[in-house]
Amino acid sequence: MIHPAPLIVLLMLCAAVLRAQPLPLDVRAAPRPLREGHLRMGGSNPRGDQFAVNSFFVTHNGKPFIPVTGEFHFFRYPPQYWEESLRKMKAGGINVVATYLFWNVHEENEGRFTWANERDIRRFVELCRQHDLYAIIRIGPFCHGEIRNGGLPDWLLGRPVVIRSNDPAYLAYVEKWYNQIGKQLQGLYFKDGGNIIGIQIENEYQHSASPWGLTYPGQPHDWTAAEQDLGATHQGVSVATAENPYAQLGNDHMGILKSLAVKAGMVTPLFTATGWGYAAISEYETIPVTAAYAYPFWTEKKDLSPFFLYKNMHAQPDYAPVRYVPQDYPAFAAELGSGIMSVYTRRPIVDQKSMDALINRCIGSGANGIGYYMYHGGTTPKGENAYFADEAYGLPKLSYDFQAPIGEYGQLRAGFHRLKLLHFFTRYFGETLAPMDVVLPTNADTLRAENLHDVRYAARARNGAGFLFVQNFQDDAVVPDKTNIQVSIQTQTGTVNVPASGGFDLKSGENAIFPFQLDLNGVTLQYATAQPMAKGVGPAGPYWVFYVPEGVRPEFWFAQQKGLVVRNASGCAVDQNNERWLVTCPATGASEFKVSNGRSVTHVLVIDKATALQSYTVPINGRDHIVFSGATVLANGNALDCRNTGSADFRFSVYPPTAAPPRAVGGTIVPDTPEVVLRTYRVQMPAVDVPVALRQVSERKWALQLPVAMPAGLSDLWLDIDYVGDTAMGFLDGELVADEFYKGMPWQIGMRRFYPSAGGKDMVFYFRPMPRNAPYLNDLLPESVPVFDKSDNVLSLRGMRWIPEYRCTIQF
Predict the structure, then answer these.
(1) Same domain, 423 and 456
(2) Measuring CA to CA, which residue among 259, 249, 290 is closest to residue 272?
(3) Residue-by-residue DSSP string for 770-790
(4) φ, ψ for residue 701 (rounded to 5)?
(5) Domains identified in the chain, total number
(6) DSSP 218
(7) Distance (Å, rounded) from C-alpha 468 to C-alpha 487?
């Protein structure tokens, strides 16, 4: 009889051996052919700058360029804060801003166009240009965007036209609309020296529609689509069959719309069309873009999406089948659900870790353009005749927060910080990444979202060099930690094991990008178990920055070559033999080492992910620097505008260090604990205390007396409302100014937009209780579902508090 203890040990050893089996990946295939000249797009500006498009990527002045596009609806945000928000977007790594022009917003009443104040598209585009942000304008005529009628004016329903069709009467109305846009944007196109590089024609044509706002309670949705297309019309983004008998008419319609846009003066290097779910495009004249919504509100219930499984998006886009040959176009994911709206009956909760997991998957699957819907939330203003929000769909009257990386009132969420690390990666390494092929493991075709145990991985590679992508997230599921991962990569010059011995761990919800056989300023980095984040040239020479995913032991394996020396390792261990130099760094904090190839020296900074999440790339005295801070850091020439929420002091570090010490305006810099690698400063500002003056009016209504004025030294004053209920509304002077659907998290309102007129007034809040049979309960996290006991409904206001957002400027 075998004693149980030795048997257990034996089984554990066997399990360890099984776990240590390397995961295979073969990157030796010949590079894919690249096609040029077949897409009728591209253009130049008066300075000679050029954009062009081939079958794999966009080029800017002949070099690969990866657009990182953030959707921000200027109309849904106070214009006095547009510039600040654009600076936040740029700080998050966005290089292109996309925005809708909603027809009904600008021509709510037929024949009377409005382009002033929050509708001033020209001023918005000019502000984008001031901050070196390109723009893509989505001109409709149908937009969706959770706007009433999807952007079509109410009065159009009462005209003798067939909407979204080739009906000449309808096209005549569209032409008037396009001509108005053309006048507003005159001189702002790239060809004229402006920053508008793209126009999107229509939206989800012959795929989706919105319900008409002129409807009756209880009536089924009446879709804003031509009657011939109703059979192919879907509620929201979804997979469609290739069975629309009017498909050719749809393609023709897209071509007609593009010709009308060009006739109106809208000539840009790029034209795009939403190509998912067998939607129509204008073949070879528009780039068909794709989408990925992991938390849709238009489905009946939660489900596991396929958007966290690697694939070759260049061969098989998401929401296929599609109405084009995917290999003829770059893979552009332009509507990645970095959030989602709530409707009354469905309130999906977006996990912030889903955002960068999705982008890791998309880039690793071949996407050479990424875009977010939405990147910046907002508030949908009320029109003259009705609410512009899509009431038929059951959306909030005003709130368009979208759980976006930047919220309705400009607040930065965890997803903002997680995404920017990948945006920095595409900014600094996109030129190398874009031409690389997708390489998938042998089980990629059979792996399903329900499989939470197999490691999900892929590579982008070319000529034996590339990036290994790994991610460990799945929406609406808890994925176990993955341990002892080792990937064996077959290259033209031999096998690269990542890592060389043992394995790395990947925590639940996390993702990573590891380089292999990468040229690091003339030195071959065989692999690193740390993610490339940024690079530049500082006063002491070139530098690279890597960060370490949680739970990973960072090591750098450099192939031995003549003149190679690794030295001055602050906190890192260096080991050398005849084959390589191996640098092992701490998994936490910051460390640094130098790599020399005999001609130049490169500084390599290694930081943990917690530090990386606090990073901002900013220009100081003509050089790129990285600032690490828990505060929001916005570049302003050689100065930094800093905002810190909740605390009157914060710390920041600058890498590479600046020669002159920084100075603070609006605060005081005091000495901080010296660190070996990063020079850290502490800023103190005058603290503000705002008392809460709240009184209960009735069982469902409370009144909050607002401060007479915004306290000095603040960027904003947040009202944090902790409640349990169904829906919530906020009123000023009897007018609805804010609303929210309960999702199990505090409701935050930024108050600065209401000042000075709101000073000293009561803001009245009305809460409706949550019914026991509420249809959205399954969407909420378990800890957010209240205990009903014997009551049929629950309403509880747990409290309100003021949270100051402090502001100061750091000068160099």
Answers:
(1) no
(2) 290
(3) EETT-TTGGGS-GGGSPP-TT
(4) -130, 135
(5) 3
(6) T
(7) 9
**pLDDT of 575:** 96
Same domain, yes or no: 357 and 446? no
CA separation for the pair 703, 800 (Å, rounded)? 11
Tell me which DSSP letter residue 436 carries: P
Indicate the SS3 state at residue 338.
Answer: coil
H/E element, 665: strand 663-665
CB neighbourhood size of 722 (10 A):
13
CB 319 within 8 A of CB 385: no
Q: Are residues 391 and 512 in the same domain?
A: no
Among 612, 643, 662, the domain-final residue is 612
Residue 232 shares a structural domain with residue 341: yes
Other Cβ atoms within 10 Å of 713 Cβ, number: 16
Whether 625 is in a domain gets the answer: no
Residues 58, 121, single domain; the answer is yes
Residues 6+ positions from 466 with CB-CB distance below 8 Å: 27, 436, 439, 459, 460, 515, 516, 517, 518
What CATH number is associated with residue 759? Answer: 2.60.120.260
* pLDDT given for residue 12 in this prediction: 39
The overall pTM is greater than 0.90: yes
Per residue in 280-320, pLDDT tens?
999 999 999 999 999 999 999 999 999 999 999 999 999 99
* pLDDT the model gives residue 511: 98
Measured distance between the N- and C-terminal CA atoms of the chain, rounded to whole angstroms: 76
Q: Quick check: bond before 374 cis, omega within 30?
A: yes
Cβ atoms of 557 and 582 closer than 8 Å: yes
What is the pLDDT, as a whole number, of residue 591?
Answer: 96
C-beta of residue 204 within 8 angstroms of C-beta of residue 144: yes
What is the per-residue pLDDT for 652? 96
8 A C-beta contact, residue 741 and residue 344: yes
Given a contact cutoff of 8 angstroms between Cβ atoms, the answer to whether 302 and 231 are in contact is no
Based on the domain organization, do 311 and 216 belong to the same domain?
Answer: yes
> Which run of H or of E encompasses 251?
helix 247-263
Regions of the chain where pLDDT drops below 70: 1-20
Domain holding 173, by residue range, is 43-432
Burial tier of 512 (Cβ tally within 10 Å: 0-12, 13-18, 19+): buried
Task: Write the CB contacts of 775 (distance below 8 Å, at least 6 apart in sequence).
Answer: 344, 345, 346
Sign of the Cα torsion 408, 410, 413, 417 reads positive
Based on the domain organization, do 390 and 529 belong to the same domain? no
Q: Is residue 688 part of a domain?
A: no
What's the CATH number where 143 sits?
Answer: 3.20.20.80
Strand 511-520 to 465-471 pairing: antiparallel
Check residue 20 and give its pLDDT.
56
CA distance 318 to 315: 10
Q: What is the pLDDT of residue 598?
A: 86
**C-alpha distances in Å from residue 30, one per residue of 33, 439, 515, 526, 686:** 9, 11, 20, 21, 62
Question: What is the full DSSP assignment across 133-181?
Answer: -EEEEE--S---TTBGGGG--HHHHTSS--SSS--HHHHHHHHHHHHHH
Question: Using CA atoms, how far apart are residues 559 and 580, in angstroms rounded to an integer?
Answer: 5
Collapsing DSSP to helix, strand or coil, 339 comes out as coil
Structure token pair of residue 317: 């886009």
Instruction: Say how many C-beta atoms besides its own lie within 10 A of residue 223's C-beta.
Output: 19
Out of 411, 432, 453, pick the residue that ends a domain.
Answer: 432
Distance, in Å, from the CA atom of 604 to the CA atom of 591, rounded to the nearest integer, reads 8
Beta bridge partners of 470: 457, 512
Identify the CA nearest to 293 among candidates 382, 402, 400: 402
Whether 309 and 455 share a structural domain: no
Q: Is residue 651 part of a domain?
A: no
Residue type, 202: E
Q: What is the DSSP letter of 304?
A: -
Is 652 domain-assigned? no
